[in-house]
Design goal:
Blueprint: H1 3-7, E1 32-38, E2 41-47, H2 52-63, E3 72-76, E4 80-83, E5 105-106, E6 120-123, E7 136-137, E8 141-144, H3 151-174, H4 180-191, H5 195-204, H6 206-213, H7 223-231, E9 244-250, H8 252-259, E10 275-280
Antiparallel strand pairs: 1-2, 1-10, 2-9, 3-4, 4-8, 5-7, 6-8, 6-9
Helix pairs in contact: 3-6, 4-5
């Protein structure tokens, strides 16, 4: 689902390497903030201590001036703005970007509670088919713009996420010997494409399904997630799949401005939006 969104940002076959923790440049135990100076304005992000490998790698690259002159090469309004491809520094207009890398990946640090709310800072990565461990790109990152959801939207998302669990429970129940006659009717209804009767029969099993469903691990938004996604907004479908390692504390209006620029068919801004420099806030 995310192959053309965030997954295909690295060439295949990169190896994961370890990192030695850095001492916080602002002092041990103090929050690290980074200023991202762009051609459209300044964005300030704070980095989470809960994701030390990702945080320290980002600090290392900022100190090395790795990001200076790179582009926001992929921009999707109401979703996110992506940057960090080193090959974007001198890329001609119109060239598709996103395959540049730092030569390594960073182990995933997916922490419950660090969510893709608006302003979240997270790492891009390859897709699960070639990257089942969800290791992060060594350099490419994105900032979430997202959109605001209603509680009904989130209810439907939970339903969709958990549909497979309920289908599995129904299959287990209807295959029990005592439900042989119902199973035969179910098969007949399927063969005859009798949708209304299928739905009615399935609904008759809902109390049994629900009694087993509550015992199974299943997806559910926390109170904090619901509050965030129904107020500031975000991109909840990314939660649990990408490392969120910081958030914007100043410059959300700049994120919105960048997200609104005109883009080409590859979601690259028609007019370059460049990171002029990054610096650690002292």
């Amino acid at each position: 689902m995310l192959q053309k969104k965030l997954a295909l940002i690295l060439v295949l076959g990169l190896a994961t390497i370890g990192f030695t923790s850095f001492v916080s440049p602002t002092g041990e135990g103090k929050e690290v903030k980074i200023t991202i100076n762009t051609t459209m304005g300044k964005i300030v992000v704070k980095l989470y201590d809960e994701t030390p490998k990702t945080r320290d790698n980002f600090i290392k690259l900022v100190k090395q001036k790795f990001y200076d002159s790179t582009l926001f090469h992929r921009v999707i309004q109401t979703f996110m703005i992506q940057a960090g491809d080193p090959s974007s520094k001198k890329a001609p207009q119109g060239i598709m970007l996103g395959n540049g890398d730092a030569g390594y990946t960073v182990p995933a640090e997916i922490v419950p509670g660090l969510i893709h709310k608006k302003g979240a800072l997270a790492t891009a990565r390859q897709g699960d088919d070639v990257n089942p461990s969800k290791a992060s790109s060594g350099c490419q990152f994105y900032i979430v713009q997202g959109k605001v959801f209603s509680d009904a939207d989130l209810d439907q998302y939970e339903l969709n996420m958990n549909r497979g669990i309920k289908q599995k429970i129904f299959a287990q129940i209807i295959n029990k010997p005592q439900y042989g006659s119902q199973k035969k009717r179910f098969i007949d209804f399927q063969n005859n494409n009798n949708i209304d009767s299928l739905r009615a029969l399935s609904q008759s099993f809902e109390p049994l399904i629900d009694s087993e469903y509550v015992k199974e691990p299943h997806f559910q938004f926390t109170v904090e997630q619901r509050k965030a996604y129904t107020t500031v907004g975000g991109a909840p479908h990314l939660d649990g799949n990408y490392t969120v390692f910081g958030e914007v504390v100043e410059g959300l209006d700049i994120v919105d401005k960048i997200a609104a620029v005109k883009v080409d068919g590859n979601s690259r801004p028609v007019e370059d939006v460049r990171i002029l420099s990054m610096e650690i806030v002292k």
